[in-house]
């Protein structure tokens, strides 16, 4: 695992970083689509890390953006101070949650502050669209089991509030997840999120919950406890190829969606992050080739994606790294339907941090 103290994170404008990757990103989009996508991303304020979500199966050029928000690296303030690119209802509700979170962090009081140490905003970005659109919101949870308290803090976002309560009901009344997982080891529940960017009208969407798995057998156990019907022998066969790349796998995370009960479709996130950049080529070649062998990536796409990982310099001591962080396997009827890949871009400030500026109480963030 690669842990860094968030007080060392240096923030940059996403456009700066992505412009710095122009040569390697441009082949994924083509010249015209890349320029349009870059202009859209330029409305995102400074941050210390973001993800490029690559969709190999998309019929048109696509690279979604997930930006991480922290109070300790000023990215929360950057979002609240930046002019919002849209006046949509979803933006208003999301901004309200961010403002409340900032207020509670400053006052050191509140359930939102104690239950969430990082948030993420995800944007679905097709090359031909005209603006950033609405965000999906993701909460990275501290290991607590009182989801009710979190729901109370987001009541000004009624759809998200209802979705969290539905989730709470699902894990308490309709499955064994609460008593066998959440109460015994709250850290297992890693993230919850609301995919508002995919909302066509003002209705309630399923809540996305992400569960940390100790190993692949733990993944099957949580899936079973969640009440989802699946064919384990078929699923085992679908995942046998992971044995070929097991030396690169750090951990697993199960993604579930629920209304009143958990949906039959689910995803498995496979974390493969490694801080040793000199190992990237061998590691990523093996992982992407395995995905090619399954038919979910082309050799041409692999050639382009292999160039993403690198150490980039913008001058003036501004350094950032890009490397493959994880891939996500989507299942339906216990069979793989799609595999998406996620590249992490993280900044590094190579200037030494003055000792009187280093706070030992700052949270550490897994990247």
UniProtKB/TrEMBL annotation:
Protein name stated in the entry: Uncharacterized protein
Native source species: Fluviispira multicolorata
Top-level taxon: Bacteria
């Amino acid at each position: 695992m690669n842990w860094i103290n968030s007080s060392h994170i240096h923030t940059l404008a996403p456009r700066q970083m992505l412009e710095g990757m122009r040569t390697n990103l441009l082949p994924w989009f083509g010249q015209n689509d890349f320029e349009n996508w870059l202009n859209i991303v330029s409305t995102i304020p400074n941050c210390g890390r973001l993800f490029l979500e690559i969709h190999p199966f998309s019929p048109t050029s696509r690279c979604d953006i997930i930006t991480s928000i922290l109070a300790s690296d000023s990215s929360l303030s950057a979002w609240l101070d930046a002019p919002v690119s849209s006046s949509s209802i979803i933006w208003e509700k999301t901004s309200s949650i961010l403002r409340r979170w900032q207020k509670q962090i400053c006052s050191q009081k509140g359930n939102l502050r104690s239950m969430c140490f990082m948030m993420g905003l995800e944007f679905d970005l097709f090359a031909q669209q005209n603006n950033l659109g609405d965000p999906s919101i993701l909460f990275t949870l501290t290991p607590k089991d009182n989801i009710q308290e979190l729901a109370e803090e987001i009541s000004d976002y009624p759809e998200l509030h209802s979705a969290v309560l539905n989730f709470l009901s699902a894990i308490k009344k309709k499955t064994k997840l609460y008593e066998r997982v959440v109460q015994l080891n709250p850290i297992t529940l890693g993230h919850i999120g609301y995919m508002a960017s995919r909302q066509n009208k003002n209705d309630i969407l399923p809540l996305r919950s992400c569960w940390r798995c100790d190993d692949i057998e733990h993944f099957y156990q949580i899936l079973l406890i969640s009440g989802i019907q699946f064919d384990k022998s078929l699923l085992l066969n679908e995942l046998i190829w992971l044995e070929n790349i097991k030396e690169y796998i750090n951990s697993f995370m199960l993604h579930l969606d629920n209304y009143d009960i958990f949906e039959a479709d689910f995803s498995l996130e496979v974390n493969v992050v490694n801080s040793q950049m000199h190992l990237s080529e061998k590691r990523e070649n093996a992982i992407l080739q395995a995905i090619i062998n399954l038919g979910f990536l082309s050799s041409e796409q692999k050639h382009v994606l292999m160039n993403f990982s690198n150490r980039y310099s913008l001058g003036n001591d501004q350094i950032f790294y890009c490397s493959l962080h994880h891939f996500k396997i989507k299942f339906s009827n216990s069979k793989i339907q799609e595999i998406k890949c996620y590249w992490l871009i993280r900044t590094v400030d190579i200037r030494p941090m003055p000792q009187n500026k280093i706070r030992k109480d700052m949270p550490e963030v897994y990247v």
